[in-house]
Specification:
By secondary structure, the chain is of the alpha/beta class. It contains eight helices and five strands. Helix 1 crosses helix 7 and helix 4 crosses helix 5.
Length: 214
């Protein structure tokens, strides 16, 4: 049986990604992160609903250093939405290599966020993480290049999905299919996407570039 780590934000898409893989008999472990700007609270609930183990990692210091100077820049606010998942997935790769997982999966949906979830950005994130060929986006996999687990028969491509764009219609159908009772409502992102918070953080970093947040 294939074993995978699924990056669990606690949102609906990462829960659905886990379900799609469980449907194929894949053994799932969730992975979630604590930082200065987001935490694992929702992921804990989601892991409970899914009935899976959750690995929690605190990468606050490393994440803050990345936020101060992200190689691939910011989104509309102080949100480095390419380097941030890149860093999470780098950590996931370390765990995958150490603990013998076959691949890593996320709930990313092609085109859901035009800047960070287009084909090119998804490839960049994959490259940053070092997971080339071993990073699966089950909700959009049929629209993306074939991954190693699909090529070597650990995953059946036909049973992965082809969701793209911002409509959540297909996801809501899957909520019914999988009988999901509770899930976090889709938000715009973490604190770094909040305009007021971003403005304050920008000022802090201007005056105190070496700051450490408590
Ligand atoms: S919204 Fe926040 S947590 Fe999500 S990828 Fe962007 S920076 Fe990271």
């Amino acid at each position: 049986m294939a074993k995978t780590l699924v990056l669990l934000s606690g949102g609906l898409d990462s829960m659905l990604a886990a379900h799609v893989l469980m449907d194929q008999g894949v053994e799932i472990t969730g992975l979630s992160f604590n930082s200065n700007f987001f935490n694992t609270a929702k992921a804990k609930k989601a892991a409970g609903e899914l009935g899976i183990e959750l690995i929690e990692i605190d990468f606050s210091d490393e994440h803050l250093e990345m936020v101060k100077n992200p190689e691939h820049g910011y989104g509309k606010k102080m949100n480095p939405c390419i380097d941030c998942p890149g860093l999470m997935l780098k950590k996931a790769k370390e765990i995958m290599d150490k603990e013998g997982f076959d691949f890593v999966a996320t709930g990313e949906v092609l085109g859901q966020r035009p800047m960070s979830q287009n084909k090119e950005s998804l490839k960049v994130v994959e490259k940053i993480s070092g997971l080339e060929g071993k990073l699966i986006r089950p909700l959009s996999a049929k629209l993306l290049d074939e991954s190693e687990p699909e090529k070597n028969g650990k995953l059946i491509r036909e049973r992965l999905l082809d969701i793209s764009g911002r409509s959540r219609q297909k996801q809501l159908e899957l909520v019914k299919k999988y009988g999901i009772k509770e899930y976090a409502s889709p938000g715009g992102g973490c604190l770094l996407t909040d305009p007021e918070f971003s403005e304050k953080l920008l000022k802090i970093l201007e005056y105190w570039p070496d700051c450490i947040l408590a």
